[in-house]
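Dear colleagues,

As part of the handover before I leave the project, I'm documenting each prediction I ran so the next person doesn't have to rerun anything. This entry is a single chain, and its sequence is reproduced below.
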Amino acid sequence: MKSILASIGAVLAGFVTVVVLSILTDTALEALGVLPKPDQGLYDFWLLLLALAYRTVYTVLGGWVTAKIAPKRTSRHVLVLAILGTIGGIAGVAAGLMLPLSALWYPIALAVLAFPSVWIGGRLAPQKP
């Protein structure tokens, strides 16, 4: 049971890393006037590219965190996070179709980059048997 909780914690820690850093960065950039408020939508190509860049970096970091604290079988934990991230990205595409708050390429790019970004982060961490 302890091992299962540690495994869930490792995946959850990676997920929370991505979400919290993304929200904090969005909030800071909104407060600085770089990004518009969420209800105003975001369609500027360069601002979307900026958001895609930092979210991708945070997703790599999330994979690294998961791999770093996974109790064993690092790759399996990273794989679970990568699948969850891809599912979340697909949900973002569906939401973007129903409530367009940005150019559609942006949530598609997040969905496509989720799996490889997490996987790269997992590969950067020290491997466990």
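Residues 43 and 65 are 31 Å apart (CA to CA). The helical segments are 2-31, 45-69, 74-98, 105-124.

All the best with the project,
I.
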